[in-house]
Amino acid sequence: MNSTDQFVIDLFEGQNLSFIGTVDEHGFPHIRAMLRPRKREGIKTIYFSTNTPTNKVRHLQSNEKACVYFCNPAAFQGALLIGTMEVLEAQEYKEMLWQDGDELYYPGGVTDPDYIVLRFTAISGRNFSNFHSDDFYIN
After folding, report:
1. Which of 10, 79, 124, 138 is deepest in the core (most CB within 10 A)?
2. Do residues 34 and 19 make contact, with C-beta atoms less than 8 angstroms apart?
3. Closest CA to 38 of 126, 128, 120
4. Residue 28 DSSP label
């Protein structure tokens, strides 16, 4: 694993929040805070769970371009990942991310129609640390 990947993973693991950006039907960006993603495969593939009837899901259904940002404000460090985000409705993905306690948000359980999974696939990024930033590409 290279140092850039480790930097992003450390930010990911060290924070409870992340931020995702989507693009609306007029081409304007929307940023919102999300709980830390439930699963990742390196820094290339990241999974979020969310509510189905949200603006972010609507945006992603018409434009899959997205970004994910992790930061440590106290250390003035951050990592931006740029890529695409898919809306996954298949039950296998819902079961993969389901955790005890989720029924608080989704009373219907893992099959609740209000529960959906988002899969982000990164293609590039930019990290910020020590008053310096670097662009990188993800294979």
Report:
1. 79
2. yes
3. 120
4. -
